[in-house]
Amino acid sequence: MTAIQNLWRMTCGPALNLAPLAGDTTADVAVIGGGFTGLSAALHLAEAGARVVVLEAETVGHGGSGRNVGLVNAGLWTPPDEVEAALGSEEGAALNRALAAGPDLVFDLIARHGIECEAVRNGTLHLAHNASGLRDLQSRHAQQARRGAPVRLLDAAETARRVGTDRFPGALWDGRAGTIQPLAYAMGLARAAIAAGAVLHEASPVLAVARDGADWTLRTAGGSVRAARLIQATNAYAAAGAGAVPMTPVHYFQLATAPLSAAQRDRILPGGEGCWDTATVMTSYRLDRAGRLLLGSVGNLEDFGAPVHRNWARRRIAAVFPDLRGIGIEAAWSGRIAMTGDHMPKVAAIGPGAVTIWGYSGRGISPGTVFGRAAARWALGDEQAFATAIRPPRAETLPGLRALYYETGATLTHMLPA
User: Which pairs from 288-291 meet CB under 8 Å and 24+ separation?
Assistant: First the structure.
């Protein structure tokens, strides 16, 4: 199997097939981007009675929302003490609190709207890849526990029982978290938003954005939307030019095996937790509902390192789970992460009544949903809706070179023994 095949697209059910924008229309709020952030914003706006139009260049969930691992985690990759050190105690604590509650919002929306997305809320496991990784987890545990989070440090024996391998000396379990089929979640948000009155258009890339009196006018090949408020929610898939946001694109790939046997499923991740390790070039592991093992890591399957990444992934599966050596691979795909220099999400004003949101740095499901709801509240007049300050966009240092550094580093790492 050499073609790029996204498991989430293969298993999410029928496409939405939303019509492109045709003609000119008006709205209270225009949203650019049909991923977690834009869809959450549209849903919450429509539920509040606002007229909202979403323009998606491709299809709902085409970008990172439909390509990620599907881990519904609390907080950011950055530990909470570092978040507060970077943003200041007040703003940092507010962001930590908002994102700690992110999984609650995601799973509440899933339950409230009956979204079929393979939701499992049995926690996630952050795996120590060596002794230094274990020390990192001990620090993270102390920081999270101090804030009242339901986290537990697991020893090597408990980690082996939960994961199905003795490769890891310990793990940090977070009971707030879980897993989903991310593209199905995005499509479920879209259906819920439409049911609430939002208007969504696929295949409608925005070609121009202009201030028009007190409003914004967005033009596509098929028409225009005029709105008083504008939310840009394109993250790592922002278009070049006026829609670009300052970030470093980092690629992440996944391979999905054939379904495991019943005996293998009883031993490998029997609790259904999603996992990732503490290595600099991290690896993630999870199962889907059909029992496929999904292994992911940093790398682009559509660039020079693709053969290296694929071969390494097969070797890694065999090294961590020896009885899966030679198992068939049913899907392989990759997507882009919008990485910022400090790994913090950003909200920036791009004009009167207009914001752009980006930079989840690899953790987008919960934060994207939270920031989308905040964007809706902001558009309805709450200027303090975001847990982080609205700041002017600030350029990233040498993003192209940094992106090459990440991809080259991952490729070189994946040339080493798995």
Answer: 288/7, 288/11, 288/118, 288/181, 288/256, 289/118, 289/181, 290/11, 290/259, 291/259, 291/260, 291/264, 291/265
What stretches in the chain show pLDDT beneath 70?
Answer: 1-3, 240-243
Under a CB-based contact definition with an 8 Å cutoff, are residues 278 and 137 in contact? yes
* Closest-CA residue to 283 (of 325, 255, 250): 255
| Structural domains counted in the chain | 1
Task: Print burial letters for 151-180: b (CB count within 10 Å at least 16), e (below 16).
Answer: bebbeeeebbebbbbebbbbbbbbbbbbbb
For the CA atoms of 291, 258, 191, 21, the dihedral, rounded to the nearest 10 degrees, stands at 160
Task: Report the CATH number that the domain containing residue 299 is assigned in CATH.
Answer: 3.50.50.60
Q: What is the pLDDT of residues 57-71, one digit of tens each?
A: 999 999 999 999 999
pLDDT score recorded for residue 116: 98
352: in domain = yes
CA dihedral defined by 408, 414, 312, 129, rounded to 10 degrees? -130
Instruction: Determine the pLDDT at residue 90.
Output: 98
What sign does the CA torsion over 74, 267, 152, 120 have? positive
Find how far residue 115's CA is from the centre of its chain: 18
pLDDT in tens, 237-267: 987 555 678 899 999 999 999 999 999 999 9
Is residue 310 domain-resident? yes
Question: Which two three-digit tokens encode residue 245?
Answer: 């946001």
pTM score, whole prediction = 0.97
Give the domain range for residue 271.
Answer: 7-413
